[in-house]
């Protein structure tokens, strides 16, 4: 058999196999790609993580709620909008104290952080009716914490179809509400009975 012009002929080794001939193997995970967040995670606009003097979570409580994006204040923790949200209503529950690790929280802080997380879910359900939530903490920079030095619990509302092509194709995240409107709605609904 003569060569095919691409170096695949007699004596050139086996013919390359077509990937379409192999069964598809998956790991069972869905993927939510968010490349737009790299501007925040690794870019020049990333907040410093050099201690409480530079910490945006330490600075926010000293501002007016609308300026600091604070939705609610408690005795030990507060709820603040994520400056770079995955979805409208993406809240962070932060202790006032500048601590990095969940094990550093006092019993009172731990209790109020849990209660604020529950109230954040109730409030966001009243305000925008999401289909579900992602809750979580990234402990340490290696685990994905953008600001590792100040503990924060993410409360991310999820909506059917909220992961679309825009972030991947157009490096754009469609957010139908601006921060001020979301903060006002959440703040007004915080603590209201259902």
Automatic annotation (TrEMBL):
The keyword Nucleotide-binding applies. InterPro entries: AP-4-A_phosphorylase (IPR052908), FHIT (IPR039383), HIT-like (IPR011146), HIT-like_sf (IPR036265). GO terms for molecular function: catalytic activity; nucleotide binding. Gene3D superfamilies: HIT-like (3.30.428.10). Keywords: Nucleotide-binding. Pfam families: HIT. PROSITE patterns: HIT_2. Substrate binds at residues 82, 154. A motif (Histidine triad motif) lies at residues 150-154. Residues 1-31 are annotated as: Disordered. Residues 56-165 form the HIT domain. PANTHER family: AP-4-A PHOSPHORYLASE (PTHR42997:SF1), HIT FAMILY HYDROLASE (PTHR42997). This is HIT family protein.
